[in-house]
Amino acid sequence: MSKKKWISIAAIYSIIYTVTTLLNSILYLGNGIYEDPSGNWHELDRAMILLIGVVVFKLCTDLPVKPLIFRYMIAYVPSQLLAFLYVWLSGLREELAKTAYRDIWINFTSLFIILCIVNTIISIWKEKRKKAFKES
User: Fold this and answer.
1) Per-residue pLDDT tens for 86-114?
2) Looking at residue 136, what is its pLDDT?
3) Which of 1, 30, 36, 71 is deepest in the core (most CB within 10 A)?
4) What pTM does this model have?
5) Do 83 and 108 form a contact (C-beta atoms < 8 A)?
6) What is the C-alpha separation between 116 and 125, in angstroms, rounded?
């Protein structure tokens, strides 16, 4: 795998982690909670789940599989299963919330869908740009 691809994965990961962490903090502060009740483990868990999703997404969406929706499914299923495994393993460290699996499914799937939409838009834009370049 090329250095450029790893830099791309690191950049996407960093941006999404920063945005989700800031959003989480803003929501807590807006609700009058001045410290994360889950503490540092929550931050590390978010980092690991996001790492799973971004790396698998980026690796699988470059597979030579047509149509694009199949590539997304190839990326989604194993990454969601890895996220569930991570949640289960974190349950060995501390008691999970009753809604832990539902929460991870909702959050992971939502972010995955956003990544799919952005990736599709970029793919379409690159194709149009490539086509326009060939015509000129």
Assistant:
1) 999 999 988 888 999 999 999 899 989 98
2) 67
3) 71
4) 0.78
5) yes
6) 14
